[in-house]
Amino acid sequence: MRFAELMAIGTRIETGTLEFSAEDIVRFAEKFDPQPFHLDPEAAKDFVFGGLCASGWHTAAGWMKMFLAYWAAESARLQAAGIAPPDMGPSPGFRRLQWLRPVYAGDRITYYATLQASRELASRPGTWLNTTLNEGVNQNGDLVIRFESNVLEFA
Amino acid sequence: MTDSMSDATLHFEDFVPERQFPLGPKIVSAKEIIEFAAEFDPQPMHLSEAAGKASILGGLAASGWHTCAMMMRMIVDSFIGRSTCQGAPGVEQMDWKKPVLAGDTLKGFGVVLEARPLKSRPGIGIVRMRTELRNQRAETVCIAEQSIMFRMRESGENRA
């Protein structure tokens, strides 16, 4: 099965919701992004964010986590129906990532993916490049992150 | 916080075009790769050496998001940690050029491309940078273009 058959172009798929606890925010930031507004609720008050908020990379990694959860469930569903799931390869990267609002401790982010384009590579027949628009929305309906990513698919 | 900041603290004005900051080195362990992947990107080539070897990546390979996070840590350790950083609006582009494999040593640089004051937020400027990481084989593993906000030196006392 092709990816574009599973996710119709232009259809926004909800992949899952992730809650960002203060503990998770600090644990990620201690390893990867130790800035005051990601580590300490009191120190965060001195910054424009005004409260403890997640590293943008934590928010982005959360998209991957929920996409894979969705993907695992879809793959299992297809296999149970006797259909081979799309054979997805690695990603060469992403474009236009925007952190539009802070993700604060206690926020629940619902993630989405929308397939925008799927094209066969002229240089590698049998390999497709899929472009998706990826988004995260908080519990108030505000968009907090968006980016466009590419992922390879093999025939 | 402002009072404790010495002149050595990097402000917006210090990020002049072409200025470079070193990143790394950082040795990437198998344990870290697996730990990150188990939480955020549990695909076989990020979780075991055998699955990595069998994949197009050729070995136990870090999630691209892990590489981003490690790059962020190198950026914090290099210059953000001694700056007036006010967060980042986004990343225009991230290219994952080569797999980051267990045991690799990553290092690179960040270079300022452009710096301009933010009209919407007096006292804050935005700096666009290119950051690159290479492995011990001198292969470029990732290239990013990203924007970071910094408070200005002269407006340090009257920010909102």
Automatic annotation (TrEMBL), chain A:
Highest taxon of source: Bacteria
Ranges of residues in domain MaoC-like: 9-120
InterPro entries according to UniProt: HotDog_dom_sf, MaoC-like_dom
Record field: transmembrane: none
Pfam families associated with the record: MaoC_dehydratas (PF01575)
Name the record gives this protein: MaoC family dehydratase
Organism lineage string: Bacteria, Pseudomonadati, Pseudomonadota, Alphaproteobacteria, Hyphomicrobiales
